[in-house]
Design goal:
Elements lengths: L2 H17 L2 H60 L5 H13 L5 E6 L2 E10 H15 L2 E11 L2 E9 L8
Antiparallel strand pairs: 1-2, 2-4, 3-4
Length: 169
């Protein structure tokens, strides 16, 4: 639109406004204020209010994540501070932990790597096994290929790195 067409529209509006009764003008003014107030609430106030109301929940979730990260950092430091395990003791701990998984797990050792093949092992048993292997054998997972075969049961393989010669990692 150019300036002349805007001038024409403004002129038409002023003519209509002058032709309206005072009551109609009041109603139109009130409707314009109501529309403006509604737009202000929808565009400016409501999103800010939503952000303020959701902020405590988000802060609580972030605090929980931070607590978990701190706990994991303390755990990593404690594991790092433990003395190295001799290779024979690490293999024995790994075999003992794997034997507790039952028929669903088979262990294969090759130098400083161990591969565990899993078949229908529960998630809870797998988590317990990983904790035992990490603490007792000082082994760490370097590769995992796991799949859910039934609800709560996993199959696949995990490759673990053992500390060569009991050297710390």
């Amino acid at each position: 639109m150019d300036a002349s067409s805007l001038q024409d529209l403004r002129q038409q509006w002023q003519t209509r406004w002058s032709a309206m009764a005072p009551r109609e003008r009041q109603l139109l003014t009130a409707a314009a204020w109501l529309l403006g107030l509604t737009l202000l609430v929808l565009v400016a106030i409501r999103p800010a209010w939503r952000t303020l109301s959701e902020a405590p929940k988000q802060l609580q979730a972030l605090d929980a994540q931070l607590d978990d990260m701190r706990r994991l950092a303390r755990e990593a430091e404690s594991l790092r501070g433990r003395p190295p395990v001799p290779p024979a003791q690490a293999e024995a701990a790994l075999k003992a932990a794997t034997d507790r998984l039952g028929k669903g797990a088979q262990l294969s050792l090759q130098g400083d790597r161990a591969t565990v093949s899993l078949s229908k092992v529960s998630g809870a048993d797998l988590a317990t096994w990983l904790d035992e292997v990490r603490a007792g054998a000082r082994a760490r997972p370097v590769e995992a290929q796991l799949g859910l075969v039934e609800p709560g049961l996993y199959a696949g393989s995990i490759v673990l790195a053992l500390a060569p010669g009991g050297a710390p990692r």
